[in-house]
Design goal:
The chain is of the alpha+beta class and 446 residues long. It contains 8 helices and 26 strands. The strands form 7 sheets. Strands 21-22-24-25-26-23 form a 6-stranded antiparallel beta sheet, covered by helices on one side. Strands 2-3-9-4-5 form a 5-stranded mixed beta sheet, with helices on one face. The relative contact order is 0.13.
Length: 446
């Protein structure tokens, strides 16, 4: 069944002060029209329209800005757009009085409450989606962001690594769905170092910022006059911002996005590349017609993996499955490698490299998923009994995404499994191996 676009069922109002301008701001959130995305109407500028969806937002210092009719603009749109995207809203009209939406408590939580108070309704139009035709990466000297194509209709998954001087290194991964967004992301507040806050205010920004709506981190790493809502609130807010920046496209994204230290500028560059790729491939604004993938035909998230594999953190070496075809005996899985992996603290800590035996373990775990998913093998454990022809060709380092493809070379039997595994990063071969397993009932061991 074709998934339909969603918009607001009614209206909601939000008032406050702009985070950067310090100016009073009033919003009225209203139902949108099919295929229009998010349209801002500046009521204080004769109703000039500013649309998100025609192209990437313009990244200015610590915020994303949209520019529309006659050069009219609206800045710091990322928190509001993040709330729309996180809740599954595709189109809305936003009447705004002022140069930027209210900063509120520095998160998207109050926007979520306003959207929910208005309610949601389906439109008689297919949902628009963009799926990259190939992995697309944008990099700067210290940051990067990459979009890896997902299965059609799989939606957006994110992985973010935060590694800034003065802040604790943090890592977060999620599939963007309404419940997860509301519970885990919407309440994460904006932040900055104390020295950055002083520089921003000297530059005429952050006029509406306070210690209550901005987490200001002192030189000793403590938060000034406030407390964290989550132990890793900083990285969760970076995920919130990233979702808002991607929402500028005006379509759902079927991809996994891996970001390392990425900010509004790099996020906007990725959006530009994604839109250009979609236009070139003839995919721009394509309806999301594909049904949600099933276990045998597409995506498994971490919860599905935990149901099949006995492994648990820190020894679970897979993050998700992006292809699974039992008929063809092929499975493809991903492992996102971050600096927070426990083995990096002791394995070449000055030049972290993923141990080869753990790459092999990731191959073995993915092979296990293939072997144990068949109806004849459910309730068993796959024990690795032999490894042949192992070759390691390149190093795997923090920020890499390991893509592993396993093929069962012989028909899956009740007691034995034989798999060929091939691991790549950015399309380049990392390792290959032939693996053989004994399939043993879970309740008796070898």
């Amino acid at each position: 069944m074709t998934e339909k676009q969603k918009t607001l069922a009614g209206e909601a109002s939000v008032e406050g002060v702009g985070l950067h301008s310090g100016a009073p701001a009033k919003l009225r959130l209203k139902p949108g029209l099919p295929d229009e995305g998010f349209v801002f109407i500046r009521t204080d500028l004769d109703g000039k329209r500013i649309a998100a969806g025609g192209g990437p937002g313009e990244a200015r210092a610590r915020r994303t800005t949209l520019i529309g009719e006659g050069g009219a603009s609206v800045q710091t749109v990322e928190h509001l757009l993040s709330a729309f995207y996180g809740l599954g809203i595709d189109t809305a009209e936003i009447e705004i009085e002022g140069p930027e939406p209210p900063g509120l408590d520095g998160s998207a939580r109050e926007y979520v409450e306003a959207i929910r108070s208005a309610g949601m309704v389906e439109l008689d139009a297919p949902r628009r989606s963009i799926r990259p035709s190939k992995p697309i990466a944008v990099r700067s000297p210290k940051s990067s962001i990459t979009a890896i194509p997902g299965e059609p209709g799989c939606g957006l998954s994110l992985t973010y690594t935060l590694d800034y001087t003065g802040l604790p290194a943090q890592y977060y991964a999620m599939k963007v769905e309404p419940e997860a967004y509301v519970n885990d992301i919407a309440g994460a507040r904006t932040f900055c170092l104390k020295a950055e806050a002083e520089m921003l205010q000297q530059a005429g920004l952050g006029k509406g910022a306070t210690f209550q709506n901005t987490l200001v981190v002192s030189e000793d790493g403590s938060v000034i006059e406030n407390e964290l809502r989550f132990p890793d609130e900083f990285v969760r807010h970076k995920v919130l911002d990233l979702i808002g920046d991607l929402a500028v496209m005006g379509a759902q994204l079927d991809a996994h996005v891996v970001a390392i230290r990425s900010g509004h500028d790099l996020n906007g560059q990725l959006v530009q590349e994604l839109l250009a790729d979609a236009e070139t491939a003839g995919l721009a604004a394509a309806p999301a017609n594909a049904p949600a993938p099933t276990a045998e035909g597409g995506l498994w998230d971490i919860q599905e993996l935990l149901r099949v594999l006995p492994h648990r953190y820190p020894f679970l070496m897979l993050d998700r499955i992006v292809k699974f075809d039992l008929a063809e005996r092929v499975i493809v899985g991903l492992k996102n490698v971050s600096i927070n992996e426990p083995y990096f603290s002791g394995h070449f800590p000055k030049r972290p490299v993923m141990p080869g035996v753990l790459i092999l373990e990731a191959m073995a775990q993915l092979s296990g998923v293939m072997l144990l998913a068949g109806s004849d093998n459910q309730g068993k454990i796959a024990y690795l009994i032999s490894v042949d022809g192992v070759k390691f060709r390149r190093a795997v380092t923090p920020g890499d995404q390991l893509r592993i493809e396993v093929t069962s070379k012989k028909a899956i039997r009740k007691t034995r499994g034989h798999c060929e595994a091939h691991a790549t990063v950015d399309g380049k071969t990392i390792a290959t191996a032939t693996l053989k397993f004994a399939l043993v009932d879970d309740n008796r061991g070898l």
